[in-house]
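User: Hello, can you help with two protein structures?

Assistant: Certainly.
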Amino acid sequence: MALEMRERCERCETAELPPDAQARICSYECTFCVPCTEAMRGICPNCGGELVPRPRRV
């Protein structure tokens, strides 16, 4: 099963996140840009889970 690779940050909605971009993701596939992740201290606001680097697709 493949991860859903969302194209925008769920917090700011302005950061574009193409498949090769740095992004952070939780176990429920909530996706955020790096600046938003840092502002949230690496914790997903939706589920409380840890935000980790999203694998890249090239």
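That covers the first. Now for the second protein you mentioned:
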Amino acid sequence: MTATGTLATRPAEHPMSVITAFLQRLRRALVMPQEDPATAAYDRIMRRLGISVGIAGIIVCAMELPEIAEQGRHAPGWWTVVAVVLTFGWFPVLAVISAITGPGPVRVVSGCAALSFLAALATMPFALEVHSVDSTTVWPYRVAALAVIAAVLAWPPRWAVAYLVASSTSVALSIIYTVATVTPYSVVENFLRAVGLAALFVWCGTAATGAAARVDRESAIATRRAAAAASAQGRDHERARFAALIHDAVLSTLLEASRAGAQSNVLRRQAERTLEQLDECRGSDRDPDLLDARSAVLFLRAAVHEINPVVRFATRTWPGFDDLRMPVHAASTIAAALAEAVRNSLRHAQLPGREVRRIVTATVSAGSIRIVFTDDGAGFDLAAVSADRLGISMSILGRMRQLAGGSAFVESQPGEGTTVTLVWGGDGSR
């Protein structure tokens, strides 16, 4: 009998799996970082300028190749390669880095490109003979503007201006050293031309980055102001809601209790509902549920009948009413406003010698609900109602106006009854 076994050796990896793993690691390493909202505009400007300068460096390199080859005949072969790499080598890297990373690496690579250009100029005395180039300028002269833009991306404006002067001076000295025919006029002309062109790019780059930084500052200020306003509005809303609750429920329950003088089922239900509303106010952080059309109508009918079971509640529906989805907090707000309208009618609409009729009509459509409460009681003059009367201004009108998509209207005349209309959904218009 022959025994067989297997060696515990690691199988050779397939070349394609190695390449796939490398690409996955590279993709994870080059994931675009999320923008900081506080510096979003500045970051985008830096990245776009970096891409533009990098691509421009590649284009200029391609355009200068014939001149580089012509002037390279006067220097050792190693110098041309080294000078081209030092002058243009960082620009493709800058384009790629700007496309996949944030402003930090862009500044680092731009600084390397700017310093590398000065290093290329510094190698010229070691490779070229004095006055050996038969031309008006040497080819690095035409790259100075790109190097200055890289300095703008890398450093603060005052350092970029210092680099502008240093690079323009270095270019002028390289012309004096290498060009065969040099005159003071040509040196000054080339220096001023280099300074003027570079200064234009410095101004444009500084203006663009400065404008982006100002946009970020203004956005941050606007965000803080909006947050403060929203916080203040939220506090005002809570105070108004609590004041309305105290007026509608607590004070009304106490008033009815003092008038009744004895226990009653209506008073007991009203007291229980008041306690529930106080609990809801204290624990209002829970997620709102949605009510369909039937549940919303039952909820509103229960709120009315808790105040007075005799009030008639009618319902009308329009096509698509089954699509209604009302948040519980919206239904609670409408129910509270409707209950206050019923209470006001019970207190103030009585007429001696006859019974006052009261009816609530709920009209439900696809995305909205309209509640109309009507009585044929004493009525009142709206213009004569004091502004400090919370029953109408705060508990009905104010409460519905604070509800998103809600609105309310009160119509009344002395001796002609009162109509209160509550609307939610759509644009909240009547």
